[in-house]
Structure formats: C-alpha cells, structure tokens
C-alpha cells in the first residue's frame, strides 16, 4: 500500500493484503479486514467495518457506522447511508459451524438510506433507491424505489434520485419516463413496472 495515494486515519485498522485505490479516504476507527478491495476516490466514514474479501468499487461513499460483511459486493458510485447494514447468513445461530455464506450485490449508482437492513441473497439494481429504515428481503430492480418493512416497490427514480412521475412513451420492452427535475429520460422495464403495480395493490 502506498500511503501517498490514499488516506488512512491513525485510529483506523487496515489489515494485510488489502487493496486501496488512489484518492480513497478511510476515517476514524474504521476496520478493513484482510483481502478486502476498495476502489478509487471512496470515502469510508467513522466506525465502518469492511469484512474479509469484500469488494468495493470506485467513487463509493460509506457513511458512519456501516457494516459491510463478507459476501457483499458493492459496484461503482454507490451510496451507503449511516448505520445501514448487510447480512450474510439466512439461518444465523451462534453455535453453527457449517453456516452458508449467501452473497449480496449492490449495482452501480444505487443508494441505501440510513438504518436500512439488506437481507442477504438479494441484488439491488442500478440507480435503485432504498428508503431509510427499510428491510430489503428481495431483489430491487434498476431505478426502483423501495421502502418499508418489508420493503415494497413504491415507484422508480431518475439518475438524480428524484421520483419519476411523467410517462412519455413506451416500446416493446420499456416504459419511458422523463424526470421533472433534471429532464433526463429513463427506461423502466415493463416487467418491473408491472411488479410495481401489483405491489401498490397490496
């Protein structure tokens, strides 16, 4: 590790064989375990725990008190809000010796709100938005907005994070929205939109 290319606070613990990208900052009392990989220009907040072998992409922001456990992969441009947590075992027992690691994937650009819990085995799609305090128990589609316990699909968001409200067209596979905030167009898969309509009726 080259100390000139990234910053590690003196109180942080970074174990052996950790890869840290240029421009990344690791703050007070963080703990990065052996074999973890952290990309470029990340910000790892106070009291963050990054477990053995975890992969973190580039430009990721991890706020204070987050636990990223073994089996989790976080792609580029992801935001992890304060004190949210991941899990990695569907049947946790303190006395289990044959527990099964269940992987979780957070895809590019997704945001997870404060105190949310991500139950292992799910994929959170590109640019999805997870509300504060949500308990996510199943996959979240790209651009999906979910919140609640258990979290349900409540709509879709733009790249900028605002909720999409204006439908401007469709094609064979997608519903096309235009963001009222930034003006960008976003294509939502029809199967994901149909899931939203079903969950709204629950």
Q: Extract low-pLDDT stretches.
A: none
Strand order of the largest sheet: 1-4-7-10-13-16-19-21-22
The ordered H/E elements are: EEEEEEEEEEEEEEEEEEEEEEEEEH
Computed over alpha carbons, the radius of gyration is: 18 Å
The count of helical stretches stands at: 1
Assign the CATH topology of the largest domain: UDP N-Acetylglucosamine Acyltransferase, domain 1
> Judging by the overall fold, what is the CATH architecture of the largest domain?
3 Solenoid
Under the CATH scheme, which class of the largest domain?
Answer: Mainly Beta
Q: Which structural category fits the helices and strands?
A: mainly beta
Helix content: under 10%
* Domains, number: 2
For the terminal residues, how far apart are their CA atoms?
A: 51 Å
Shape: globular
What's the number of extended β-strand segments?
25
Measured by DSSP, the beta-strand proportion falls in 25-35%
The major pleated sheet works out as: 9 strands, mixed
CATH superfamily of the largest domain: Hexapeptide repeat proteins
């Amino acid at each position: 590790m080259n100390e000139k290319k990234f910053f590690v606070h003196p109180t942080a613990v970074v174990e052996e064989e950790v890869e840290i990208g240029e421009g990344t900052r690791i703050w007070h009392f963080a703990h990065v375990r052996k074999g973890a990989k952290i990309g470029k220009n990340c910000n790892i907040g106070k009291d963050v725990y990054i477990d053995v072998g975890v992969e973190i992409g580039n430009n990721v922001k991890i706020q204070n008190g987050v636990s990223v456990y073994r089996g989790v992969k976080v792609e580029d441009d992801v935001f992890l809000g304060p004190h949210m947590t991941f899990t990695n075992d569907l049947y946790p027992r303190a006395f289990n010796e044959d527990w099964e690691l269940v992987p979780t994937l957070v895809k590019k650009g997704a945001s997870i709100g404060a105190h949310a819990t991500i139950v292992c085995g799910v994929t959170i799609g590109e640019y999805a938005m997870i509300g504060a305090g949500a308990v996510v128990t199943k996959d979240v589609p790209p651009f999906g907005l979910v919140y609640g316990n258990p979290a349900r699909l409540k709509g879709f968001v733009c790249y900028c994070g605002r909720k999409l409200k204006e439908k401007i067209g469709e094609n064979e596979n997608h519903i096309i929205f235009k963001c009222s905030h930034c003006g960008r167009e976003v294509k939502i898969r029809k199967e994901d939109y149909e899931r939203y309509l079903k969950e709204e009726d629950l």
